[in-house]
Amino acid sequence: MFDGLRYRSVFSPIHKIDPRAKFIYVCVLFIIAILFSQLIPLLVILLLQVPLVILARVKREWFRLLRGSAFFALLIFVMNVVSLYFYSGNQSIGIVVEYALAMSVRFIVLVESFSIFFLTTSPDMLSLSMEQMGVPYEFCFAFTTAIRFVPVLAEEAQTIMDAQRARGLDLEGGNFMRRIRNYIPILIPLIVNAIRRSLELAEAMESRAWGASKKRTNLYVLKMGKKDYIFILISVVMLVSSIYVWLTVKIPSLIQVLQSLT
């Protein structure tokens, strides 16, 4: 699952876009996904990301992340169905299911938008762009280090789980509380290794005199080009159009559309 959030070095037009332009695009998608709670516009937003994934040549990693997110999307769907069915009054089961499905699609839209950003943006370029936007270097370094360590911790957790299974630990057996206790032998070595790795990183930073110089210089300087401004313009148009639709258009539900067709 975490492979879908790890940078993949590929020659593609999406990779060449400035990180700041892609970040604006992700923020726009986030706002649009929060604005709408109907299923139809959320499905449109979901499908609009497919051409970007194809252009970026990260289909395998993108599908892997969506497959890993399916459990959480299903959990969101079930929780919404249960809560709305018992506590929303006299709403029909069709409306309840459609709303719950819309919330699951919203979650997938948010996940896939951030997936495209992290798959096509190098952590070094991301840190450099944040620094050029005026973010203090300490925060840039902490943020990019956290991004780098998430896939490493995921792989290490999988290695520890495989090792514990080989020793006879049954992670899936028992009731809910028993399953939580089964993961304690996984968490303890994972936390210990994470602390050990952070200490090694701190020693490496001190040995290289990290923070000794107040004025940092960079080898590269990001400059936005014509394609970056076009990408930002497309993002702004999407945001303005979405706000206009949200304010002025009454979006029908999928059930109403199907009923009008029959």
Structure described in brief:
This protein is mainly α.
Overview of the structural elements:
The chain is an all-alpha fold and 262 residues long. Helices cover 75% and strands 0% of the residues. It contains twelve helices and no strands. The protein is flat. The model has no long low-confidence stretch (mean pLDDT 84).
SSE topology:
Layout (H helix, E strand, L loop, with lengths): L12 H4 L2 H17 L3 H10 L1 H7 L2 H29 L5 H28 L2 H10 L4 H30 L9 H7 L1 H24 L18 H23 L5 H8 L1
Helix pairs in contact: 2-6, 2-11, 3-6, 5-6, 7-8, 8-10
Q: Please state the CA-atom Rg, rounded to the nearest Å.
A: 22 Å
Strand content: under 5%
Largest sheet: none
| Percent range of helical residues | over 70%
Give the number of helices.
12
Question: Could you report the average pLDDT, rounded to the nearest whole number?
Answer: 84
Count of strand segments: 0
Backbone shape = flat
Helix/strand order, N-terminal first = HHHHHHHHHHHH
